[in-house]
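As a next step, the fold was encoded as tokens, giving this record:
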Amino acid sequence: MELRELAMQAASIAQDAGKHALNDQITPKDLGALDIGSRDYSRGLDVDHRLAQFIYNRLTYVDGFQGRWEDRPEHGAPGSRYWCIGGIDGVINYSRNMAEWAVTISLFEFNEHGSAQPIIGIVHVPALALTYLAARGQGAIRIRRTPLGEKREKIMPSTTTKLDGSVVAFGMSFKPEDAQQALDVVYRLAGRPADIKRIGPASLDLCKVADGTYDAYFEPHLHQWDVPAMSAGAVVIWEAQGKLCDWAGGTIYWRQENDIVASNGLVYDELRPYLLDELARMEHEDA
């Protein structure tokens, strides 16, 4: 099956899964879900396991693959593929009945160097009736519901060339040290972009850079549990011809935790010094 067709079928599965997750958000079956004040978000949500299992079960009827991302070998045969499915991306938004949360699917393939890289990315936002999908070499598209029906459109990043007057988004986890790093950068950036936004989740923020809503997005620490969301958004960014790297300008590695910055490629050079300054500050504190 061609990658584009495979991506479309995976997107359809994500949309079906999203209906179940949205229904659970609107009408929770567990009264404990209403007690959000003391929730440990690091443990995810009860819906996460059901969501992932539903998606994996459906994917088995779509195309042959070698297994799940979490069960991948250290070194896979070239061409072997593994689906990567996470839980809800944006658990706090979901728990607080906000619309900005996503269901994500990505497909990793081992290359001739024994490195697994994402080649398909799906980011579906059920509450906004919005789906982003991309496949290697096929470009990236956005599917959205309008009063006239479903609309599919190719996406590309903005053409903003300067940090001054741009729109920049940032992310941070619930961990204090991650939040401090992000807010330090925001403090130093203040006054240059026209707006600095913090909405999330990471997968949707990446897609908003890909479609030109944001000019750049950065986050100081994406954890292993963020790989499903980050990899799905990464394929959308790459196929839309945006730029994605770590804060130092290096490659994203999927077997370790990363700081990341995504941009239209035009404002990156002006944004990068702020990120490098924060990295230097953190290294000095650790010394």
Observations:
- The chain has seven helices and twelve strands.
- The helical segments are 3-26, 46-59, 91-95, 176-189, 202-210, 227-239, 268-286.
- The chain has a mean pLDDT of 91.
- The domain at 3-154 is CATH 3.30.540.10 (Fructose-1,6-Bisphosphatase; Chain A, domain 1).
